[in-house]
Amino acid sequence: MGFDLYGVNPKIKEGTKKPEEIDWKTSTEEEKEEYFKAVDEYESINKGVYFRNNVWWWRRLADYVMEHTKCVDEKDFDKWQHNDGFEVDEETAIQIANQLEHLIKTGHAQKYKQEIDDEIKKAEQHNDKVQKMLDELHLEVAKIVGNEKAEHLAPIDYPEPYHKKWNEIYKQTDYRANYPFSIANVKEFIEFARNSGGFRIC
Questions:
Q1: Residue range 91-121, pLDDT digits in tens
Q2: Which of 13, 33, 145, 146 lies 20 to 30 Å (CA to CA) from residue 69?
Q3: Whole-number Å distance between alpha carbons of 189 and 96
């Protein structure tokens, strides 16, 4: 799952033209490859056309925008975390870009990144312990069903009470380990927002 952001009225560099859609049913693999290459080139030149993050990267970026730019109304917070086509107008998009630039210049974004990095490190260490407990449980199951069968046995098929115990252990996983944050990603988003003419979150 990912988040695709499309500029509503993006600034287009003179002399560039969006590649024409190809016939996906009849086009060859080579033609498809050329089309994707042309689209990538068009979007790399015209930064306000398209921006994408997978769900892990987008969650952190969206949280940072909502919590620290003060440009997003609290009633719209939930809309930033769904692929429903929520539209951000051009004025707000530019304000977000300006505020993010300010947060980078003042060192706030870097401090936030360090906090997230520390949080991820602790979460990873915690998850290593969770995984160790899951591995130990698997060995217990292997003693009952046999090593060969246990090797191909999914936790959902563990005999009770081991299946229940697996769920209890797995629920201790700290998912914060999966949500990174980077200044480079913020800068890329700034460039998109500033040149998008407003954007939709899909």
A1: 999 999 999 999 999 999 999 999 999 999 9
A2: 13
A3: 10
Report CA-CA distances (Å) from 82 to 55, 64, 139.
10, 16, 40
- Nearest C-alpha neighbor of 137 from the set 167, 175, 107: 167
Collapsed DSSP state (helix, strand, coil) of residue 45: helix
The number of angstroms, rounded, from the C-alpha of 180 to the middle of its chain's C-alpha atoms is: 8
Per cent of the chain over pLDDT 70 is: 100
- Give the C-alpha separation, 190 to 94, whole Å: 8
Alpha carbons 30 and 81: distance in angstroms, whole number: 36
Kindly give the interhelix angle for 55-68 and 90-105, rounded to the nearest 10 degrees.
90
pLDDT band at 31 (very low <50, low <70, confident <90, very high): confident
Helices in the chain by DSSP H: which ranges?
Answer: 29-45, 55-68, 90-105, 108-145, 147-151, 162-170, 183-196
Q: Is the dihedral of CA 141, 147, 151, 157 positive or negative?
A: negative
- Neighbour order of strands in the sheet with 199-201: 50-54, 2-7, 199-201, 86-88
Please give the structure tokens belonging to residue 143. 């003693």
Q: Which residue has the tokens 């997230």?
A: 116
Cβ atoms 51, 179 nearer than 8 A: no
